[in-house]
Amino acid sequence: MESTAKALILKKTPYSGSSFIVTTYTRDRGLLSFLVRGIGKKKGNRLSHLEPLSFVEISFHFREKYGVQTARKITADYTSPKLFFDPIKSTVQLFLAEMLFKALKEETPDEDLFDYLFSSISYLQEANDQQDFHLIFLMKFTRFLGFYPKGEMTENAVYFDLLNGEFSSSRAQSIHTLDLHNSTDFKEILASDYGTRLSLSQDRRRKVLDSLVEYYRLHLEGFGEVKSLKVLKEVFS
Prior knowledge:
- The chain contains seven helices and seven strands.
- It is α+β, with helices and mostly antiparallel strands.
């Protein structure tokens, strides 16, 4: 069946010659992988379209029993050179693409999730100040993954427990409970939206980033190491 999918590029992996396996999240079919042949040779199939976090339209013949579909044509749907050539944004781009690749494992489509990713990444492309974007993005993204923090920080619950996803009265509840400073930073991120400038020092920003990645690791099986994390922290140091 001939199909066209709006898709977010998560990862491209060299396959052979001028061909790639491209992992995408699509609006109508969820997670899909494509074999893309003849990059740079066929009109419409350009390497620039396959950059992580690019939004594209993919034409293909859908075969339900195939784990990898064959892309007939890929065209840009929404791109901005600023995202790919700004050194800070390009580092955030690679980090978020890796986080999304590790987190998105379901083939079931979620149009609300796709629209969230589209609007968020569109915001990043146009934003001037992006040092806190990835922190707020990761916190908001947990709503779609099923482990958005429960409850609020109160006088009787000031420590955030990463394992249980809630504020608690004691750090003894779990070995994964954050200290007071880190918990307060979690609270601030929870209350923030894109464009908010967080009141964090560079050291506390790095620590809360580590805590957010650990939060994902605890709640997503097989999440593993995030290789781009070190580079991101160096860029923002």
